[in-house]
Design brief:
Elements: E1 12-16, H1 20-32, E2 36-40, H2 43-52, E3 57-60, H3 69-78, E4 87-91, H4 96-104, E5 109-112, H5 117-164, E6 169-173, E7 179-182, H6 184-190, H7 194-197, H8 211-224, E8 226-235, E9 241-253, E10 256-265, H9 267-300, H10 308-339, E11 347-350, H11 351-366, E12 372-376, E13 381-384, H12 386-402, E14 409-417, E15 433-439, H13 464-467, H14 474-484, E16 488-494, E17 498-506, H15 511-515
Parallel strand pairs: 1-2, 1-3, 3-4, 4-5, 12-14
Antiparallel strand pairs: 6-7, 6-10, 8-9, 9-10, 11-13, 14-15, 15-17, 16-17
Length: 516
């Protein structure tokens, strides 16, 4: 696209004087300096010219027949088309009263004849610059007014949608998570009044929201800007537990970060889903175990010899049946944990023993994969559910081994630390905590998928479930186990450089402290 042609003159000036010699002199001086000059000798003609094509500036004599300069200026200022054009009086009248009257009728300057050329040019240039700045200011003001109108309209639309939405919506400040505004749908769902909610933090109300989960969500929101389809359980004022599917967006409100949360009540859907999962899981496990038994019997050859191709098909069928059983068991475990039906059996355990047991349990998977597991244990007695922590460690080691290349290593380490390893950690800054790491040298995880891998059936590659015999629930189960212990789990990764899974757990060594 070509640029518009440059303006052939600096400005359009209308010169009004009943003396042709004066007009000729002004016209010559200004034309030489690249101004466009229109010259008229009568006030009435000047008014028509200014209204037809408004100039950038007007030079106006005072003493003229029929209509003097003061009258011309008054009419110019009375017309919307010419009101803002700067008028410089050029007159032989040098009395103070003459100058005062010129300013009273709307003139911006007064030059006394005979004039100095450089003075006139300087004043013309000054007022043209002022006029240009005035126009810019007017344009900016008009644009600002339009933006204000647009924003006010958008705010009105948002407020209407906010109030009338059937979905519960909340607006909370960050990072303190105080309620700034809630809509009627949220109040109906929660059973609270607006006065009971506004200004309160989520943890100040008995909504049943975990402080750990809230801090974790706030950290993820700050990093990603948006959270989609997160399930949370909300306790209403009457004590009823409702399951919500929420989406959260980070927004700026008057320069302050806020979280806009839109919820969908899926309590009934979850009840039907849980019933269906329980029914299907229990109805599947018994026949699938029978199928596996029958396939094993066929594989032994007691019912007749099979060809090599037949043996291969039998082994494929057994592997798929076992994977289906694992999937069913994982679904049951995850649902029981989320519903609270599966409680922790806390007891005192040796952390070093747990790490070495996890290493021994995964040795059968590591050796065929030619992956070496290295353990760095710490001599510490911890109050945990030993079986669940062992399940956590074996799940993470299993993932690390599956995605490691032959000849690589996987590290399992634990240490007691102080301070916050991760900004979202809910542990007190000076409280000692247990920090467990599982590190591999695998292919790594894309940054945009790091916050998704702990969701159900989420995998880095859609083909992983088939290639790696995974169910897509292992990391979701790990997160539930860690959260039930009051800790946090997250991953750090770089493509081609491997991944590190971090677990932080509060250190408790008595039953009473573990139950708190």
């Amino acid at each position: 696209m070509t640029e518009p042609a440059a303006k052939p003159y600096q400005a359009d000036i209308l010169a009004i004087d009943d003396t042709p010699e004066n007009l000729q002199l002004l016209s010559q001086l200004l034309t030489e300096r690249h101004y466009k000059v229109r010259s008229v000798t009568k006030g009435s003609t000047a008014l028509r010219a200014a209204q037809a094509a408004p100039p950038d500036l007007i030079l106006l004599d005072v003493n003229m027949p029929q209509m003097n300069g003061y009258e011309v200026c008054e009419q110019l200022k009375a017309d919307d088309r010419t009101r803002d054009i700067p008028v410089i009086f050029v007159s032989a009248l040098g009395e103070t009263l003459d100058k005062v009257k010129a300013f009273q009728v709307g003139g911006v300057d007064y030059v006394t004849k005979p004039f100095q050329v450089e003075e006139v040019l300087a004043r013309i240039e000054t007022h043209l610059q002022l006029r240009s700045l005035q126009r810019q200011l007017q344009q900016q003001n008009a644009q600002l007014q339009q933006e204000i109108r647009d924003r006010k309209l958008a705010e009105e639309k948002f407020a209407k949608a906010f109030r009338s939405s059937p979905n519960p919506i909340t607006l909370t400040s960050l990072p303190d998570c105080k309620f700034i505004e809630v809509n009627p749908s949220f109040l109906r769902l929660s059973g609270y009044t607006r006065e009971e909610v506004i200004g309160q933090r989520a943890e100040d109300l008995p909504l049943g929201l975990s402080p750990t989960a809230t801090a974790e969500g706030a950290a993820e929101l700050s990093a990603a800007g948006v959270l989609h389809n997160r399930e949370v359980d909300l306790r209403t004022k009457s004590g009823e537990i409702r399951t919500l599917l929420i989406s959260v967006e980070l927004i700026d409100l008057a320069g302050s970060p806020c979280a806009l949360t839109v919820a969908n009540d899926i309590t009934e859907r979850k009840r039907l889903e849980n019933e269906f999962i329980s029914l299907v899981s229990h109805e599947l496990r018994t026949p699938m175990n029978s199928v596996i038994g029958a396939l094993d019997l066929l594989a032994t050859g007691h019912l007749g010899a099979l060809t090599e191709k037949g043996q291969t098909l039998i082994q494929i069928a057994i592997a798929n049946a076992e994977r289906l059983i694992r999937l069913v068991n994982d679904i049951l475990d995850l649902e029981r944990m989320k519903s609270g039906q599966l409680t922790l059996q806390l007891q005192q355990c040796s952390l070093a023993d747990l790490l070495h047991q996890a290493q021994a349990a995964m040795q059968g998977l590591a050796e065929p994969a030619q992956v070496q597991i290295e353990v760095e244990a710490v001599d510490l007695e911890v109050w945990v559910d030993c079986d669940r922590i062992l399940q956590l460690l074996t799940n993470l080691l299993s993932n690390a081994i599956k995605f490691s290349e032959p000849g690589s290593r996987v590290w399992l380490s634990a240490a007691v630390e102080r301070g916050a390893v991760d900004p979202a950690a809910s542990l007190a800054p000076l409280s000692p905590f247990l920090h467990i790491q599982v590190k591999d040298q695998g292919r790594g995880i894309p940054t945009e998928k790091l916050h998704l891998i702990f969701e159900r059936f989420q995998q880095v590659d859609a083909s992983d479930a088939r290639k790696k015999s995974g169910t897509g629930l292992g990391l979701a189960i790990c997160r539930q186990i860690v959260q039930q212990h009051g800790g946090r789990i997250w991953a750090e990764s770089e493509l081609g450089q491997g991944s590190t899974f971090h677990i932080t757990l509060p250190i408790t060594n008595t039953p009473s402290s573990a139950d708190d």
